[in-house]
Amino acid sequence: MGISRDSMHKRRATGGKKKAWRKKRKYELGRQPANTKLSSNKTVRRIRVRGGNVKWRALRLDTGNYSWGSEAVTRKTRILDVVYNASNNELVRTQTLVKSAIVQVDAAPFKQWYHQHYGVDIGRKKKTAAASAKKEAEEGEAAAAPVEEAKKSNHVQRKIEKRQKDRKLDAHIEEQFGGGRLLACISSRPGQCGRCDGYILEGKELEFYMKKIQRKKGKGASA
């Protein structure tokens, strides 16, 4: 029978049935939702729509372009997990990618860019972890020849020093870099454009969603 968006099959306000006085029309059709799933087996379908236009229906995705607003940088990165959805918990359970869903993305591309741009390696474990890493590094050096880091020219060093003056990093984001996962929001519509792009959460918005996720975890633990 198919999904129909006409009102001909609906009852009247009084409760009486309407008589179908014409056949269904193509422009009244409805299509089932894409329910894009998080999967490494990328699947995108081409759909011909009204006016001969084309939509791209993503059924399975695991990567997208995510922008870091305060640093004005965008990187293609892997989507690791769906952690929150304001409209429906079922979409979190089934790992469904929809617009405005909160996901965790791989921090590695941004970490790499930050190190290149500012000369700072963020997300490193402090104190005890650093000491153990140092010990491991010393052992590694004894076993194999050390690989020297590419030497920066004076011009590049001056540029990095100049950038360091204005460098600001949100404590919450730095903490996330330590875990290798960043919270992000999907801003594209995977079922309409076939892509799962978005932005890294920052500031008040990040705090808001962190509280929401924490509250949800607390409820789950108590249940």
TrEMBL record:
<feature type="region of interest" description="Disordered">
    <location>
        <begin position="1"/>
        <end position="41"/>
    </location>
</feature>
<protein>
    <recommendedName>
        <fullName>40S ribosomal protein S8</fullName>
    </recommendedName>
</protein>
<keyword id="KW-0689">Ribosomal protein</keyword>
<feature type="compositionally biased region" description="Basic residues">
    <location>
        <begin position="153"/>
        <end position="162"/>
    </location>
</feature>
<dbReference type="InterPro" id="IPR022309">
    <property type="entry name" value="Ribosomal_Se8/biogenesis_NSA2"/>
</dbReference>
<dbReference type="InterPro" id="IPR018283">
    <property type="entry name" value="Ribosomal_eS8_CS"/>
</dbReference>
<comment type="similarity">
    <text>Belongs to the eukaryotic ribosomal protein eS8 family.</text>
</comment>
<dbReference type="GO" id="GO:0006412">
    <property type="term" value="P:translation"/>
</dbReference>
<feature type="region of interest" description="Disordered">
    <location>
        <begin position="133"/>
        <end position="167"/>
    </location>
</feature>
<feature type="compositionally biased region" description="Basic residues">
    <location>
        <begin position="8"/>
        <end position="26"/>
    </location>
</feature>
<dbReference type="GO" id="GO:0005840">
    <property type="term" value="C:ribosome"/>
</dbReference>
<dbReference type="InterPro" id="IPR001047">
    <property type="entry name" value="Ribosomal_eS8"/>
</dbReference>
<dbReference type="GO" id="GO:0003735">
    <property type="term" value="F:structural constituent of ribosome"/>
</dbReference>
<keyword id="KW-0687">Ribonucleoprotein</keyword>
<dbReference type="GO" id="GO:1990904">
    <property type="term" value="C:ribonucleoprotein complex"/>
</dbReference>
<dbReference type="Pfam" id="PF01201">
    <property type="entry name" value="Ribosomal_S8e"/>
</dbReference>
